[in-house]
Design brief:
This protein is of the alpha+beta class. 44% of the residues lie in helices and 16% in strands. The strands form 3 sheets. Strands 3, 4, 7, 8 and 10 form a 5-stranded antiparallel sheet that branches. Strands 5-2-11-9 form a 4-stranded mixed sheet. Strand 3 and strand 4 form a beta hairpin. Helix 5 packs antiparallel against helix 6, helix 9 packs antiparallel against helix 10 and helix 13 runs antiparallel to helix 14. The two termini are 23 Å apart.
Length: 409
């Protein structure tokens, strides 16, 4: 094999490469492959466990709009509830009625955090069956004492753009009745131009606010039918067309009910009403990615990064969409920014993407460095094993010096 054939390998799709993405994978599945399926024991106990809590800002006030509540177990997150306008929330394990959308994380975006093959945009692996078994290490094991459930490895957090959240560790909890988790505190991130609460809320007429409040109340009811919340929100935006928060929430509910076109329109209306409002950007970016609309996905990702430079997820969607637009310089810049940031370990596929970019310019030593880094972060991944073998071949051919491959696991 020669340098030319090595370059040809670089141009050819590798395992898991789809639509121009350099071997990228979907979130959640790889972690499940490594961990295996969680135990099924204690499933009935999980169904009976009900949790409540409250969300406040660091000054003690309540957020001015619903906040997503997520349960994070061994690195995998799932939305379990929304708070009401007083910050209160409640959810029952195994009950999916609290979910409004499935994209609280990079669901279905190839190469997202802790990616693994096999998930899709519609279902990132958190289906009802998986929830019954537990997810991300949530096993539903009964604790040593009767009536207790072991939720070790799981935290509850709040997700609101522009804020960092405190975490509530679950551990062993009562499997019967109601368990109060206490208070989750949201702290504002500094030096950010975006807003987690739209300024248009202050100008909303009382009638529009009442419709919005009614929709929020419907969302917190068990067995949510999205249509019951969609109706009041449509009345709210009809009463006040510049109601950015209502448009954004309407977009999420329409998406949840299978109306992608209606969801797109609502998200776009929200951004039109208030360009600095963070909430509608990411779901609209993911919708564009799911439809291979790379240009709009890149444009919106770039806008979101300007509003919230702390959001690693936006840098990844910008890198991925730029890669598919063949704008390798823009993709490289975003990938390097991720690798130098605090969330670098959550995005191992950035190494393979960068390797692919460097291979296009035949920079084999630099590509090999990124390939080795990917192998080191994911040694049991089938792609990593294939890449490790390829590096050994390159070493034997003299494409890269032998000592560069010597550190491979």
């Amino acid at each position: 094999m020669t340098l030319g054939s090595a370059a040809a390998w670089a141009q050819a799709p590798g395992p898991g490469i789809e639509q121009g993405a350099p071997g990228t994978q979907l979130p959640g599945a790889r972690a499940r492959q490594q961990q295996g399926q969680p135990q099924q024991s204690g499933g009935d106990l999980l169904q009976n466990a009900y949790f409540t809590g409250q969300i406040t800002l660091e000054d003690g006030t309540s957020p001015q709009e619903p906040v997503s509540v997520e349960m994070v177990c061994n690195g995998q997150s799932r939305q379990v509830a929304y708070s009401n306008l007083k910050g209160h929330f409640g959810f029952r394990l195994g009950d999916r009625s609290g979910e409004v959308t499935g994209d609280a994380s990079l669901s279905g975006v190839p190469g997202g955090p802790q990616g693994g093959p096999g998930a899709t945009l519609a279902n990132d692996g958190f289906d009802s069956a998986n929830m019954d078994r537990g997810f991300g290490g949530l096993s539903g094991r009964t604790a040593h004492r009767p009536g207790m459930v072991d939720l070790s490895g799981c935290d509850v957090v709040a997700v609101l753009g522009g804020y960092s959240s405190s975490r509530i560790y679950l551990g062993r909890r009562s499997a019967t009745g109601e368990s109060n988790l206490g208070t989750i505190v949201l702290r504002r991130l500094q030096k950010m131009d975006g807003a987690s609460v739209s300024a248009t809320n202050l100008a909303a007429p009382k009638k529009a606010q009442k419709f919005f409040d009614k929709a929020v109340d419907e969302m917190r009811k068990g067995n949510l039918d999205p249509r019951k919340a969609i109706g009041p929100l449509e009345k709210a935006v009809a009463e006040y067309p510049a109601y950015a928060s209502a448009w954004s929430l309407l977009g999420e509910l329409r998406m949840n009910s299978g109306d992608a076109a209606g969801g797109r329109k609502a998200f776009e209306k929200s951004i039109e009403a208030d360009e600095s409002y963070l909430k509608p950007y990411m779901p609209l970016i993911k919708l564009n990615l799911s439809q291979n609309n790379w240009k709009d996905a890149a444009r919106l990702s770039e806008a979101l990064i300007r509003l919230n430079p702390y959001l690693t997820e936006a840098r990844f969607t910008h890198a991925f969409s730029s890669f598919n637009l063949k704008d390798m310089k823009a993709a490289e810049q975003s990938l390097v920014a991720i690798q130098t940031g605090a969330d670098a370990s959550k995005y191992p596929q950035t190494h393979r993407m960068l390797a692919f970019i460097y291979l296009q310019s035949r920079n084999f030593p630099k590509a090999a460095t990124e390939m080795r880094a990917f192998v080191a972060t994911s040694p049991t991944d089938p792609q990593a094993i294939a890449i490790g073998k390829k590096l050994e071949e390159w070493e034997a051919m003299g494409v890269i010096p032998k000592q560069q491959a010597a550190s491979l696991p």
